[in-house]
Specification:
The chain is an alpha+beta fold. About 15% of the residues lie in helices and about 20% in strands. Helix 1 packs parallel to helix 5 and helix 5 crosses helix 6.
Length: about 450
């Protein structure tokens, strides 16, 4: 043991590093694994020798590199651990099924491991190299281990990480332009409420892009939408659950690669589409669908005109014949993707004040309402509920409004509906929600699960 005023060497019970404790300190924190280590009480000091006297051997530490030596009355007795004498959180350890060891702090690679066991403190005089002793019983820490224990090599420990979940929500009102809409930002906020309150998403798992955000990085421009999609799919792995929602204008433009049966690509219109251009279904598929690995699941809700095949998924569900229709050109992917779209490729989607006090997209409103009201036990029941509600919902006095942009900005509008054509007294809204999938064998009777 060191003389008065000298640092006291102690051994960390977790990572076995030697720690030099300042004199008079009861506990120290290991700088490697952050464990709290008890500092042994110093032995009773012997009087300093007068001139000509020989100091007892136990008064001074052995020379550097020498083995400690104890003899006669100066050998400390073995320490006996009892529930009453054990310090701090290690008092009264439990046994059997009730035993739960004290939680150990985590190091840079998780809990540190070692192949060197703790020797019993001063139980016998050491001779030669440090012996390998069995682990102390019941996980009791060796608070007075000899200082000759050598540092050991830390081995990284694999830590299991839970599956990720992410959501990207986009609401664009195009405020101050001739294409202005009234309910798209409301749609994005309603979807965020559903994800957090119904499905337990955390704030840091949701990316919300709206033009009302004071931070321009969070505006739904073409560039920021592509950045958001990259964030959504980055690092995706098997078991991850992803969600994408878009509420805004949709359009069509002439197909350039021959993969569309009708000769037109479906598009989403970012906030700056008149300057930066539209986002085609080919771009969405390449950036958001193709990168997904096997076992990763992506759900999408697209509330926009001409949105039926805006993800370019190969299979579309036909409600009347209850079968999957295969697209002209099949684009495959490893992940599982399911998309709910507001309408067919040749239809327009409506915005209306169905909430009674504010505008919203009809598709988003009915999707959220069906889930909250308990009609989403399966994908089939959710789709059927939305379609049924479109037929019986009462249109407001102001009438529904199509999500149609400036005809000069969008290359093609050929639905022929117009504002009055979006709703009929006998049949309700004319838009028909669509369901598409990346897998032909996808069973609509599968339980609907976003997480």
């Amino acid at each position: 043991m060191a003389h008065a005023g000298a640092a006291v060497p102690v051994i960390c019970y977790q990572c076995h590093q030697t720690i030099m404790a300042p004199p008079g300190t009861n506990q120290v924190r290991c700088g490697v694994c952050q464990a709290i280590v008890n500092v042994p009480m110093p032995m009773m000091a012997h009087p300093q020798p007068h001139s000509g006297q020989t100091a007892p051997a136990a008064m001074y530490p052995p020379p550097s590199g020498a083995q400690p030596s104890y003899s006669g009355a100066h050998m400390p007795p073995p320490t006996q651990y009892t529930p009453s004498s054990m310090p701090g959180p290690y008092a009264a350890p439990m046994t059997g099924s009730q035993y739960h060891p004290h939680p150990q702090p985590q190091g840079p690679y998780g809990a540190a491991t070692s192949s060197i066991s703790h020797p019993l403190p001063y139980a016998q005089q050491p001779s030669g190299p440090p012996p390998q002793h069995p682990q102390p019983p019941n996980g009791r820490p060796p608070s007075m281990a000899p200082s000759y224990t050598q540092p050991v090599q830390h081995q990284p420990q694999i830590v299991q990480v839970r599956n990720k979940r992410k959501a990207m929500l986009i609401g664009i009102n195009y405020h101050g332009t001739r294409n202005e809409l009234g309910g798209c930002i409301n749609d994005a906020n309603c979807m965020k409420f559903l994800l957090t309150k119904r499905f337990g998403f955390h704030e840091d798992e949701i990316l919300l892009l709206t033009e009302t955000n004071p931070n321009p990085v969070m505006h739904p421009t073409r560039k920021n939408i592509f950045k958001g999609i990259s964030w959504l799919v980055k690092g995706a792995s098997a078991g991850d659950k992803l969600f994408f929602h878009y509420s805004g204008h949709g359009g069509q433009k002439r197909d350039r690669d021959g993969d569309e049966a009708d000769g037109y690509d479906e598009t989403l219109l970012p906030l700056d589409f008149q300057r930066a251009g539209q986002i085609t279904d080919d771009e969405i598929h390449e950036r958001m669908v193709m990168p997904l690995p096997e076992g990763c699941v992506l759900h999408c809700v697209i509330d926009a005109c001409h949105s039926g095949s805006v993800l370019d998924l190969p299979y579309h569900w036909l409600v009347e014949s209850r079968e999957w229709k295969t697209e002209k050109k099949i684009k495959t992917c490893l992940g599982q993707v399911v998309c709910f779209a507001a309408c067919g490729d040749n239809q327009e989607a409506a915005s209306s004040n169905l909430l009674g006090y504010t505008s919203s997209g009809v598709m988003t409103h009915l999707f959220v309402k069906a889930v909250v009201d308990g009609h989403a036990s399966t994908y089939a029941s959710l789709l059927a509920r939305i379609q049924d509600q479109l037929k019986v919902v009462v249109a407001p006095a102001t009438g529904p409004r199509p999500r149609q942009t400036d005809p000069q900005a969008v290359h093609r509008f050929d639905s022929g509906l117009g504002p009055a054509g979006l709703f009929h007294a006998d049949t309700g809204f004319t838009q028909r929600p669509q369901l598409s999938s990346s897998a032909k064998d996808f069973d609509l009777n599968t339980p609907f699960m976003l997480v």
